[in-house]
Structures are given as C-alpha cells and as structure tokens.
Design goal:
Length: 163
C-alpha cells in the first residue's frame, strides 16, 4: 500500500453543552469510508464509552452521536490532512492540524484528551501553541494497542468523566 494525501472527510461532533473534547489522530480507512469516528469494528472506543457511561454499546452512527452528545463529549481529530499509508499512525507525514478554536469558542470544554500518542504528539506540536490549553494523553483504543485490555482502557479513560 502506498502513502496517500488524505483530507479529513467529516466534521467535528460537538454541541453547546460539550465539556470534554476527545481528539484522535486521523480517521482510519474504515472511519473514512463510514464518515464517522472509530469505525473499525476492532477499535475499542465505543465499548469503552459504553462502559464509562453505563450504556449499551452503540451500533449506528446515530446511536454513537447520541451517546457522545448526551454525555457532553465532543469528538474530533488533531489532524486535518496528512499523507498516510492505510490507517497507520506511524506512517503519518505532512501534517496539517485541525483548528479546534471553533469548538473551544462554542462549547464549555473543561478537558481535552488525546486518544493515543500520535494525536497527543500532534496536539502538542501544532495545536497547544495556538490554544495554550494542555491535553491529556490517554491510551489508544486502537486494535494496534493490544497490550491494553478493555478493563485497563476503561480504568484509564475514567478521567473523562466530569464530576
């Protein structure tokens, strides 16, 4: 598979009540095909969210959207466009970051969390200097992060729960 220049194909998910912003790196091939976040069936993101919010695992995009907004969680990615091979974060080059300013100006975001190292590194390099707001690194829910069990992921991700 050859590297390809890709542009993020779908908008952020948020509303005026969003308090937590979760940033991925760049959508996987499956997510790009579905035009929604965490579309790969092996990605544990939706299972983790369901556990945290004591909810059934959402299946449809509408159920996923509803789960996030009902729990005041916004979703977007650190990267607006890049050169990438398939879904491999380690292959990402030529990064153009997303401007999260619109979300920060429109919603009372209390914490910003990055789903994995690639998102966190991109955030710190390109976005932090613009916003001045620190982000938290959370373990990736990607199937490539097989060292983390679902139970460990849920424990680590509990910090998105706003008390």
């Amino acid at each position: 598979m050859l590297p390809e220049k890709q542009i993020h194909p779908f908008p952020p998910l948020y509303d005026a009540a969003s308090e937590v912003l979760i940033l991925g790196s760049f959508p996987s091939v499956k997510s790009r095909q579905q035009c929604f976040y965490y579309g790969h069936p092996q990605n544990r993101f939706w299972r983790v969210m369901a556990e945290l919010f004591k909810s059934p695992v959402p299946v449809t995009i509408e159920e996923k959207r509803d789960l996030m907004l009902r729990n005041h969680v916004a979703l977007w990615d650190s990267i607006a466009s890049c050169t990438i091979t398939g879904s491999s974060d380690s292959s990402i080059r030529d990064v153009v970051p997303n401007d999260i300013g619109l979300i920060l100006a429109s919603a009372p975001i209390k914490i910003i969390c990055c789903n994995g190292r690639a998102s966190f590194d991109c955030y710190n390099k390109y976005i932090l200097p613009r916003t001045g707001r620190e982000a938290r690194l959370l373990p990736s829910t990607s199937p490539a992060n097989a060292a983390w069990s679902i139970e460990r992921l849920v424990g680590a991700w509990e910090e998105i729960l706003i008390k």
